[in-house]
Each structure stands twice: as structure tokens, then as C-alpha cells.
Amino acid sequence: MTTVDKPSMGFGRMHRKEDARFIRGRGTYVDDVRLPGMLHGAVLRSPFAHARIVSIDTRAAEAHPKVKAVITGKTLEGLKLAWMPTLSYDTQAVLATDKVRFQGQEVAFVVAEDKYSARDALELIDVEYEPLPAVVDARRALDPDAPVIRDDKENQNGNHIFDWTAGDKAATDAAFARAEVVVKQDVLYPRVHPAPLETCGALADFDKVTGKLTMWCNTQAPHAHRTVYALVAGLPEHKIRVISPDIGGGFGNKVPIYPGYVCAIVGSIVTGKPVKWMEDRSENLMSTGFARDYHMSGEVAATRDGKITAVRVKVIADHGAFNGTAQPTKYPAGFFHVFTGSYDLEAAHCEVTGVYTNKAPGGVAYACSFRITEAAYLIERLVDVLAFDLGMDPAQLRMKNLLRAEQFPYSSPTGWEYDSGDYPRALQLALDMVGYDEIRREQAAVRERWAAGDRSGTLPGVGISFFTEAVGAGPRKHMDILGLGMADGAELRVHPTGKAVLRISVQSQGQGHETTYAQIVAHELGIPPDDIEVVHGDTDQTPFGLGTYGSRSTPVSGAATAVVARKVRERARLVASAMLEVSADDLEWDGAGRWVVRGSTEQGRTIQEIALAAHSSLELPDGVEGHLDATTVYNPPNLTFPFGAYVCVVDVDPGTGQVKVRRFVAVDDCGVRINPTIVEGQVHGGLADGIGMALMQLIAFDEDGNCLGASFMDYLLPTSVECPSWELGETVTPSPHHPIGAKGVGESATVGSPAAVVNAVVDALKPYGVRHADMPLTPAQVWRVIQGSPLRTDLAIT
Amino acid sequence: MQVPAHFEYERATSVDHAITLLARWGSEARVVAGGHSLIPMMKLRLARPEALIDINELAELVYIRLADGVLRVGAMTRHAELLANPVVGEHYPIFHDAERVIADPIVRNRGTVGGSLCQADPSEDLSAAFAAVDALAVVRGPGGERTVPIREFHIGPYETVVEPGELLTEIRVPVRPGGSSAYEKVERRVGDWAVAAAGAAVWLDGDTIADAGVGLTAVGADHFCSPAAEAVLRGAPATEETFAAAGRAAAESCRPSADQRGPVDYKRHLAGELTVRALRRAVARARGQEA
What we know:
Chain B: It comes from Phytohabitans aurantiacus. Chain B: Residues 2-178 form the FAD-binding PCMH-type domain. Chain B: Pfam families: CO_deh_flav_C, FAD_binding_5. The complex is a heterodimer. By secondary structure, chain A is of the alpha+beta class. Helix content of chain A is 27%, strand content 25%. Chain A folds into 3 domains: 33-132 and 198-248 and 254-287, Aldehyde Oxidoreductase, domain 3 (Alpha-Beta Complex); 373-472 and 639-786, 2-Layer Sandwich (Aldehyde Oxidoreductase, domain 4), CATH 3.30.365.10; 487-634, Aldehyde oxidase/xanthine dehydrogenase, molybdopterin binding domain (Aldehyde Oxidoreductase, domain 4). Chain A has a 7-stranded mixed β-sheet with strand order 3-7-1-14-11-12-13, with helices on both faces. The N and C termini of chain B lie far apart (45 Å). Chain B is 36% helix and 26% strand. Chain B has 3 domains: 8-54, CATH 3.30.43.10; 59-174, CATH 3.30.465.10; 179-286, 2-Layer Sandwich (Enolase-like, domain 1), CATH 3.30.390. Chain B has helices spanning 15-25, 38-43, 79-84, 86-91, 93-100, 105-110, 113-119, 125-132, 150-153, 227-233, 240-253, 264-286, and strands at 8-11, 29-32, 51-54, 64-67, 70-74, 136-141, 144-149, 154-156, 159-160, 167-174, 179-187, 194-205, 208-217. The radius of gyration of chain B is 19 Å and the shape is globular.
């Protein structure tokens, strides 16, 4: 990381304003909040993936001296809360009544004086189950004899959820019919989990006197949660306050409303006391929003000399037992249809089929940008398969097919309008940084020795991934979640002394909003970032908006911040004109915090002077009420399209299957960078995620649907030992429609990096004739690939 | 948050006191040393002892001594101390190889040599390393002290010959000239249990292998060793062909089970491959060709 020169104002590197409290251990997370008389909840979970509930006996638990309440599905049925709506217009059981549908599903909720007693009492609840056959493999979910998981739903005869298509099927089929070369590859993006360091939890406090519910909850979308609680529980929305305090990582895992939250609310209503529920690590991994689980089959049509003409894709999407994914309503497969990636194609088409399985619900999470992870991985794997079959260098093949700078704005065959980009420049920079030709020469020497019979040592491999993201959901006319448009508000107050308070609707989980948004205001108004307080995460204190996920904060809320600051600036102009006794038209903004008289820049007023005047006895011009404060709601005209070129170098030990990541070069273009240090930190995290997914992460199940990834002993996260020293580069292609030219970046590295790692491992194994290998490339999986089994046909590695 | 079921807690102030406490609490008591296996199991409620006897204050069990040709390691020696000890590294580099890949520095600062052996996890590393060098365990109980060859110490997964009421106090390793040792492990990620691992100790007489020990872990080898591989090695020339033959014997003699770390055939392959690599390195070290 480069040095920090703290700018007095605006964009550039500065330490995060949040760091002082986090480094000192003075953050306030949900579990740090303690209220007088607070009780503790714990959830009893299903040991079976699929079973009928015969009976639940709670008498012994209720008799426990420290237990205050035991809540079951029956209790909730009386309140019409046994089922709740999901963010995808499906329903989800809060506490199971008829059946359990995945291992770890919520069955009962105990409220006790302390968390030890709550856990002890869970063991006193006697549930009789009648086990049923489970649907574990999504590819078998639509078999005629597959057990029906959602027999609670009328007219649901099988496990089918949706079919969704994008692109022009006829044009795509025609392009394939004409193609000189067609390559096909099945590609699995296995089930993984965002695994935030802080698990999910809530503290519900229902005040019977005022009728007000205060909900501390580590949600990424506090305003959306408030509205959903109002709709579900019938509580008036103005009597609900959601407070999202400091959050220890979200990655999409903290977007949904989980049964534990609803149970905590009911527990508080029933007992009249605040009730805290914090899940443990195993509960988080077993039952909350997982990611991916896409079984993809992709085809590429191309000319013999490597010009890609069309891509078509079929997907089976495993959504688990309840369809609870969070994405814009129109797009049940999220933004998967950005799978044409960064290439200039004639046609493309995809068909996605969503199915139920006896596994935890979810699918859209883990920095996926609404399924762009799956799309980017698929196309980048397919391009390498094409390179393999054509005997072409994968870098040259990409250069040949990348969109050119003059093609922007570019209308993609599946309906996107890419805002800006210069792709060949980014790829060339990445290749130069890594020393591509030199590594290829080294590799050729090793392969020569290998072919001659000396098979000692490791095999080097180089993998490239070029990705384009579509982030910043999104334009209201296209995008909503449960009918709520995906716009975000901002309010800016400037105090008489020139200090400011910015209130935003998005919620930081570690992204550094308190710094970044202060820098945007500083850039627009010339108020130093340290003089700006950023308030977020409290629905009583902030304007409405849909929250932080899908890399949408800077594209939407960052834009709202710039717009509201500009509104303040325009108000300030009127006040300055009164102060200077000149026409507002004769003033110009000097870009550093002053309105000055055009042609006479020594005559001017700073924003601080103007703020004081706005609150003083100065006679204000017509239309100025007496302060500079402003408010706005930003409805983005389009998404932003960040992109990047990643190159990974690995060394593979064919004797053991071990992969060592030697180097990783990441060139990102996210438009204008507000705080480069924060951008780089986000890229670092995403690259580590990518190494984790490519090499070790998997939520596996056995054939009975038992979750095999329910602890950090079984579900592996990468450590610093597995990560090389990241080599970062950047190009800057501003977004033409964003007020400050920025694009989202929070998920870029997670989206782009897995393909680079997998492509590098496959490239290393070329002497064995390896063309594809499914993730995660654990030593055992690499060894199996060498033995000739590239596909993960089973779900558990056994 | 995961919380254990109710248990009582006693802190022992001496080995004799610990043995008295064990006698008082009976078979439902468990000794806690570093606690890095037992405590997580208790939090998951997979282990529910009625009482924990904490022996962390027993400084009398913390030592590494070399005297009269025997290396003695006290049972409460932390992994980090074994790793940092130059005498251990000089005579038996296998322990430094193994300790470098046991868990992570935080666990190594706390976890103990004795605790690792008594936990008897079938994937534990030191069990294979001590088996390779043919160590001796010293166990003390109310009736006094007894010694057990390490190859008789483990009687099954999570089972040892240490009776309720007894305490493992020391491990002894004979130090012989002309030899060296090495340890090779494959893990999915640093800190994970071994997918498979092999340890080798060799004593050379010129270019001939005078004696050898082969330890294996995570592959279902009885007592964490491979006598079949050792039989191939004894008296054979220290060559790649011999190593390969020993590797084949090690692979054939183990009984791995499939799990998320890998299928049976892969683990069997690793048992052979890692045996070969450990032998290659141990012999190179014995010849002074590699540190």
C-alpha cells in the first residue's frame, strides 16, 4: 500500500474516520448493545433436511426456571406469523409447522434470562420427526419422482420455481448454425457462503406503552427491513425504528430478514422485555443466505481464427427450500445476463431455471453483484476453453475479442448499455505488470523438461480474467425490490460554523462510508472531511433508501451525496450574492470552497462564511429561507460498469495436487476513485475471497442433505499464507452519467478473481491435457483432475 | 454464540494434586491442557465432561531436556516451545517440520504436546512424528509411574491407554547418531488438519539404511506408523528405488477413509508420495546435504 497523504479536502488517500473507534475496540455491534431487563433467545433447528413434524413437546423447556417463553410454529400461527414473505415474492417458514425443509431450519425459539439457559432449554424440547427423502442435487430436483418440497403452496406440484431467459434465441441459434467452431463446457459454481466475521443477530425492544418497536439489527438494508416489518407484522411503519449499528461484514448475507429476527420481535411482545438473538457460527453457515450454486452449461460460437460470435447458456439455479434471493424483481436470475462479459458479440441467449432443494435458502450473496460472479466466471472459463481448443494464447484471444473504446456506450446483446470503458488498455497494463511473455517463456522451459521425462518440481500456470460488472441498482423504471424503487436519499445540513452533517440511506458494513461520503461533500463544498459527520444506519435519523449491497452505494448514494452537496452549493451562491452585493450570475465556484466574483477572484466568500451568514441577520434574497440545508433522492439513469483485468500465476505440485498462488496482478477501473486506499482495501479483500472460492470454499452436503460445511473447520476461509502480495494497477475511465464519474468497486475483485485462479491452475495442468476443472481446487480435486475427472459430479468431496 | 453445557472446574497446582482431583471426580472428569480441541468440542456440546481439571499451572511438566542420550519432553510443553527449541531441531528436525504445519501460531502458543497425544485425533501430526522416532510415553497415576511405547499408546480414534485417573507426564525419545528425520504434510489450507502426512526417521550406515521409522497420520494407519515400509527400508540402499518401494508399502498398509479432505485413492496416493518425500529429505539431511 502506498503512503497516506491526507488531503485537506476532497478526493485522495486519507485514513478512515471509522478506524479510530474500530482499532481501539470501541465499535458498537448489535451484541454490544445491552438494555435493562434484556432476555436472550435461542433457536431450535431441524436435524433433518426433509421431515414431517409429528409433534413438539415444549413442557420440559417451559419448566426450566430461567425460561420466560417457548415459541413454536403453533404460537406464530395464532399471530399469523408462522410464514413470512421473502424478497422474491415467495414465502418462508418463520418456525416450521408442517415440515422441515432443510437441515438447520428454525423449529422453536426459547427466551430465557441468559444465553446459557436458553441453549440448555433447547435440549429439553422434544420434537418427533418423520424423515422424508431429500432433494439434494439441483439437477435431480425436476425429476418426475422427486419429492415435492413445497407442498405448503397451492398448485406447486414439483420443485420448479421459475424459467427466465434473456437475449435473442433465434439470432443466437443462427449464429451457432453458421459457426466454424463451437465449444461447450459444463461449469459448476458451487455453493459457498459469505461467512461475515460477525454473525447475524438482532435485539428487539417492543414498548407496549408507546407501541413502538426498536430493532437493533445488523442489516445491510435498515429502511427496507422497516417497511417489510410494517407489511408483515402489521405494525405501523412510523412506530418501527431499525437501528443498524457497526457491522462486522455483510457481503449480502445481511440483506434478508431471518426467522430469528421475527422470533426476537415476537419474544419481546410476548415477554414485554427486550430480547436479543445472536446466531452462532454454525447457525450462520447452515441456515443463512448462501451464495451461487449455479449449474451452468455454456457454449461459444467462434471463427477458426478466434473471433467469438455468440454465446448461449443454460443454468439450473439451486435456490434451496424457500426462494429468498434478493435482487430486482424483474430479474429472478439477478444480473446473470451480463454473461457476454467484455466481448463484442453478435448474439447471446441464456435460459435459467430456478429449483427448490432441501437446502438452506439464499443464492444472491457474497459480493456477487446479483449473480455477476457466476456470469463472469462462466464466460472467462469458456474463453479459456476456446483458447485451449483453438491452440491460441488466452491473452491474444481476449485482445481480439474485447470491446474497443470507441464502441462505448455499448448496447449488449442481452440488453445492457455499458456506460464507458477502455478494455484493451487495462488488459495490456495487467500483462505488462505481470511480465506475461517472460512467464510464458519460463513455463515453456518447464514443459520442455517435463516432456523430456524430468517430472520433478512444480508446474507454473498463468490465468487471465477480464470482467465487466453492472453495478449501482438501479433505475426505478426497471428495478425494485418488493415494489420499492432502488433509489437512495441524502440530506445535508450545514451548521452556522460551517460544519456539516450528512444523512444517508445506505449502511456501511466495513466499506468506509463515513470517510468516503465526507470526502464527496468535501470535494463539492470545500468543507474538510473531518468537519463532516456522516449519519447512517438509523431509520429515524436518515432518509429512505434501499441499502448497501450489489456495489450500489457509491453509484447511487454517492451520487445522491454529490447532488445534495451541489444543491447546498447553489443555495450558498444566493447567500454569497447577498453578502457580496453582486448578482448570483456574476459568481463562480473556485473549486476549493469559495464563491468568488467572476474576474475578481480575491472577492469571495468561503462556504463557512456563507453558512454563518445564512443563519445571521443578513437580509436574504428571495427564495432563501435561512439555511443551506438540502435534501435529495437519487434515481440513477443507468448502472455503472466497472471492469478489470486480472492475471494470476500459480505453481501446481502434480504429486500432491497442491496449488500455490505465486502472484496476482489486478488492474481495476472503477472510474474516479474517491479514496484510493479504501478502493485498494476492498480489492484486497475480494481477491482473497476469490482465492478462497477457487481453492477451498464449499458448502457441501451428503446424500441425505446433511450440511458438511457448518464450521470453520469444514468451511475454509483463506488466510494470509494462501494470499500473495497483491499487485494492483488502475486505469480511470469515468462513468459519463455519474455526478462525480465514479463506479462501484466493492465486489469487483470477488467477481473477477476466481476465474483467474482457476484458469491459472488449468493452464498449469495443460501437460496433462486438462481443459477444465471445477472449483474448489483443493489438493484432492486437482489430483482428480489430473486423473481425468474435471467435473464435480457429486456435491460432497468424498 | 456457542456455549458449553454446565461443568465444574478445578485448577491443579501439582501433578499429585491433579491425580488427586482426577480420583475425586472419576471417569466423567477431563483434563484440560491447551484446550484447543476439548473446548471447541464442549462449545459444540459434542463433549460434556462433568468437570475440567486444569493442569495449565503445572510448570513441572514444562521442559525439554537432553541427557544420557534421551530427549525428554514434558507433557505441558507448548507446540511453540517445541518448535523454538534448537536441541530438538538439531537431533530431530522432524518435530520442527511438523510443528511448522500444526495449526497456526495462536494455537501453537497454547496447545501442548501431551494434550495433542492424549486427544488422539486420527489426523494429529505429533502422533505420527513420535511414532516415526519410536518414542516412549510416561504415564503417572495413583499407583505410580509407568512407561508405554508410543506405538502402543493409541488404541483407536480418540482413545489412548491413559486410564481415568492417570496423567501423561513426559515423552522420551532416544537420540542415536548417524540419523536424521523429516515430516511432509498436505493440507487444504494452513491450519487445517492433514489430508495426509508422513514422517520419516533414518539412520545411515554409509549408503545403507541401518534403521528407519515411518509415521503416518490421517490415513488410518495402525498406531500412526507403517512397519511394512520400515521393513522395506532396513538394510536397503538409500536410493530413490528404495524410497519408492517404501512408499508403495506405506500406501498399501494404510486404511484411509473418504471425507471432505479427499477420496480414499487420493489419500492412499499421498501416503506413498509423502513417505517418499519425507525419506528423501531425511536421508539428504543425514548426509548433511540439507538443513
